[in-house]
Each structure stands twice: as C-alpha cells, then as structure tokens.
Sequence to fold (399 residues):
Amino acid sequence: TLGPASSSKEMIEKLFLAGADVFRLNFSHGSQEQKKELLLIIREIEEKYAHPIAVLGDLQGPKLRVGEFSKPEGEYLEQGQIFRLDLDEAKGDKKRVQLPHPEILEASEIGHVLLVDDGKVKLTVVGKGEGYLDCRVDVEGKISNRKGVNTPDSVLDISPLTPKDRSDLEYMLKIGVDWVALSFVQRPEDIVEIHELIDKYLPDAAFKPAVMAKIEKPSCFIGDSLERIVELCEGIMVARGDLGVECAPEDVPLLQKQIIDTCRMIGKPVVVATQMLESMIESPTPTRAEASDVATAIYDGADAIMLSAESAAGRYPEESVAMQQRIINRVEADSHYRKMLHTFEQLEDTSPSNAIVLAARQIARSVQAKSIVSFTLRGSTVLRASQGRPSVPILAISP
Fold:
C-alpha cells in the first residue's frame, strides 16, 4: 500500500526492487489527483524495468458512524446501562446519540450486537421502535464524535458503493488501474452491481480492470454466499481488519483458511491482508509471531500477501517489503510447501482442458522440465495453468 511514507518515485522504485508486484492505491485517503500521480510513477518504473507491475485501486465503501456529542471529548458508557441510538440530529449525551443510518435501525433485531470504535464498546439491542434502538452496554468504554459502528449480526440494505466510491471508480477506470477492490461486500449481488457500474463507466477502448472482493463481513459466510462471491469476481482479499472486529478472534484463522480453500477450489487468486508485519511500522524487524503469521498464510495457499500501514505510513517501508519477500522465498523453497500444493487438487472443474492442465503440471514435475509452454488465444489457458501452481515457469505463445 502506498501512502505518505512511500509516495516518492525513489521509494516506490525501492519497494518494487525489494519484491513488490502490486501497488495498492487506497482511495480512503488523499485526492484523486494524488492517486494519478502515483500511478504515473508506477508506469514509469514498469517501463524502465520492462516488468509488469499491477495497480490496485481500493474503494473506501460505506462508513457507518455515530453522530456528535455535546461534550467534545464524548461520553463514557457504563457496563449494563441502557443507551439509545436514534435519528435525532441533536447532539448526544450520556443517554443517547444520533445514528444517521436508518438502514441499521431497520436491520437490527432484539439481541443483535453493535460494535462501536472497532469493538472497544459493545452494545446489544434490547429494544426497538420507530427511528431508535435501545441498547445495553455489554463492554463499557468511551464513545466520542463520529466513531465507527460495525453490525456483525445484520445484513444492511445498502449498496457497497457510496457516491464517493462511484466517483472514485469512474476516475480509476479513466486513469487505468488493473484491479478494483470492493469494500463492504455483504452478498453476491454486490459484485454484480460493481461489474454493471464498470461496464457503464468504462471509457471506449479502455482496459477493463478485474474486481477483487474484500471479505470482511460475517454475512459472506451465510449459506453458499462465499462460493458465489468467489465465482463472480476475479480475486478475493481476506480483509482481516474488519473481519477481526466483526468475528471472534479465534474464528479469523479458520475463516482465512476457508476463504483460501474456496478460492483455490474455484481457481481464483486470494490475497491475505492486514497486520501482517504490524510491528514494522515502528521497528526494523518483525516479531516472531508476525513472521509465523505471514508464513502460515503462504502455507495455507495464499497467492499474495499485502502490507498496509507498514509500507504506507511506517518508518521502514522498504524493510517491510524485503522481509515479506524473504519469508515468501523461504517458505516456497520448503519441501512441505510443495507437498501441500501437490496434495490440493481442484475438484470443481472436471473438464478435459482442466485435466490436461493438471497432467501438464505432473509431467513437468516427473520429467524435471524447464518450463510449460501453452498455446493460447485469450490467455485463459495460461491463467488456468497458473492456478495449478506448477514448480516451473509457464510460457504463453499467442498468434
């Protein structure tokens, strides 16, 4: 992820040389013009080294927040007290505050949990009426102006794309990003919506970017929603930040494995993100637990691992990328990693072309081939071959 610590051409080039393959432009911060400047720098580096570099434009998504309080410092909510969330624009106090999102009031039921300020305050709905929710404070804490609200138990009847997101999406398509990441995905229909918008906004003769769905809501795991979301988009991001707020911490590693397995089964790339090397924001080396976490994501079968604040705002962006690359190289050279790849077979696709691709991987391994050569018209055969993770390079030959 690019940010204040990594916005110069010199630093972006250093990150590329340290091992970065994709640069994320976070449209939650900064202006559209700043993002275009970064993209142009990336394209210059791409041309200089004759090596493809992907650009991921990340949409902010809806931000659900409480209103403002009479006291600038906010209020401290006590355990067990009743606190009301309503649509009244009057400034809040110890007993109530505005929640300017009627869709939350509509979707919330008795017993549903609301998390304020990344879970620092936990509220449980105990009463509901026209335009308000009465909540019991189960985890006490301070609540102040414009703090975020998470709704782990509710599926909200809102679009994942705000007016700002639609403007940003149109701008992304104009400047030519390679991937668009969609935040706040709740259901498969959200992926259909962004595809329709891309078709609508895409300039004539422009490159159509791929769509990456960020999995950060518990509703993605209801029924067959996850499988349908994976099938509808071109890639998946395990967004462990919000996922870790809305789900129990002990569930996140299991959900990460479930998402990765689903993506591998269907043949879609998957990225593991958030707090990969968090301590390297301030430290030149990671903790052993962080190194193990990164390695585990790779052993699980992730196609990519992403840095966020470490490279965007940390003191050691280049060292963070280099450390990720060192861990990747170490794991991928391990015999256990190769065994894991070879034991995982995609069972969903029983087509003859899939069988040929899998056979090519096995033959290449058996005869110790130097590469796999694939004839292709549109690139689909090469992409399919890459999904099998062969241990040799793939050469694409196209007329």
Q: What stands out?
A: Residues 32-49 form the longest helix (18 residues). The longest strand covers residues 121-129. The two ends are 36 Å apart (CA to CA). The CA atoms of residues 29 and 76 lie 29 Å apart.
